[in-house]
Amino acid sequence: MPQTTSAPLMTVTGSTLVLAPVPGRRAARAPGPYARLFAVPGSRAFTVGNLIARLPMGMFGISAVMMIAGQRGSYALAGAVTATGLAALALVAPWTARLVDRYGQARIAVPATLIAVLGSVGLVLCVRAQAPAWTLFACYAATATTPNIGGMSRARWTHLLRDSPAAHHTAMSFEQAADELCYMFGPVVAAFLCSAVFPEAGTLTAAVLLLSGMLVFTSQRATEPPVAAARRGGSPLRAVAPLLALFVPLGVLFGSMEVTSIAHLGAQGLGAATGVVLALQAAGSCAAGLLYGALRPRSLRTCLLALCAAMALPWAAAATGSLPLLALALLLAGVATAPTMVTAMSRIHAVTPQGRLNEGMTLAVTAILAGISLGSATAGFLVDRLGSTTPYALPAAAAVLALLVCRPVRLSGTGQVP
Predict the structure, then answer these.
(1) What is the dihedral angle through the alpha carbons of 277, 278, 284, 285, rounded to the nearest 10 degrees?
(2) Positive or negative, the Cα torsion across 314, 317, 318, 322?
(3) Which tens digits make up the pLDDT trace of 360-416?
(4) Which ranges of 38-164 does DSSP label H, i.e. alpha helix?
(5) 189 φ, ψ to 5°?
(6) Are the beta carbons of 293 and 170 closer than 8 angstroms?
(7) Whole-number pLDDT of residue 235
(8) Geometric angle at alpha carbon 59, from 58 and 62, rounded to 5°
(9) Which residues have C-beta within 8 Å of that of residue 83, sequence separation ≥ 6?
């Protein structure tokens, strides 16, 4: 007997003929925000390169410290070299970003990355050859040409999702989670390579990952923002300057929290497990960033109020002397961090002139780096004089300061997604 196939049932809704639901069959579930995000053509390919190139950002610093201290026997020299590299990055990064916006990501990012990789390889060779100390400073300073891979990735999302604010919010939340993930695992990978393989393994591996990831990222030309728009916009410094006053205290918060936590956990005799407890803050921020991307965005003032409350928790937990309470407090502090950073960065997008987003993002990162340096130095000064508990007041105070300097954003017809 021939088999017959029944036609799908139809029903009338208003004046429209639609498919009727089939009894016993579940309706297909609508894709989630991240599934829709990575359904954008080309997004998966450039994200893979982005993540490969971003992981070394959390590896270079600790790799250089362990390599130089291990070979030269001086943490003071190692710290001075990395501090010089951070200062050079703050000076060079905005200019590199400006060139990227003006001439395109592929044309500038690849040669800039090659210079940075040569600087890293030169540092390894100088350390191994017992070259004069000034050569270490010169080589590490050359790594300051490393392009802001996070800024370039955010610029691609902004270009691709310029007509979809909700999807853009999801993309920025993903990027913040990626930052936290790489800064959480990067130091762990670097420390393992430098200690278990050989002292130079961390730096060499980071250099290979940076170059290979950047080549994959820049090879995706279809998703690269056009450079024609970059020539029409002016410098973003004037537009983002009021917001830089917000990013500096946020950097102070990050730098002071890290130094204070390391000192406090070390004083508690935690030893090698210190890194695990510190990773809880990054893990909380990573998870919160992904969750925040699936929710409706909140105002920056609301996020900062939550951040102020969360930053008081480690101070209170440290005063009790309980390590489990401190670990939980750091986790909750991290949960409040990602929504604040995502929302603050969205303000950069809102006010940055058309075609200059990478430079605007890099200026914000430079302000954060300046704040981290200030926060780290201040926290170290307070730890030496007041112990390791009282300095937890510094990140709490920095959060309050960020709330005080927060002002409503004024859109000026930039065409960016707010």
Answers:
(1) 180
(2) negative
(3) 778 888 888 888 878 877 887 788 788 888 889 999 999 999 999 876 554 443 334
(4) 43-54, 60-72, 75-103, 105-128, 133-142, 149-160
(5) -65, -45
(6) yes
(7) 66
(8) 105
(9) 373
Weakest mean pLDDT among 160-169, 314-323, 327-336? 160-169
Q: Left if phi > 0, otherwise alpha if psi is -120 to 50, otherwise beta: which for 172?
A: alpha
C-alpha–C-alpha distance, residues 193 and 60, integer Å: 12
Q: Are strands 10-13 and 16-19 parallel, antiparallel or unpaired?
A: antiparallel
Q: What token pair was written down for 305?
A: 């109020």
- The torsion angles phi and psi of 382, rounded to 5 degrees, stand at -70, -35
Instruction: Return the number of other C-beta atoms located less than 10 Å from residue 409's C-beta.
Output: 17
**Helix, strand, coil share of the chain (percent; to 5):** 75, 0, 20
The CA-atom distances, in angstroms, between 218 and each of 92, 230, 375 are: 20, 18, 34
Q: For residue 10, what is the enclosing H or E element?
A: strand 10-13
Q: Between residues 3 and 146, which one has the greater pLDDT?
A: 146
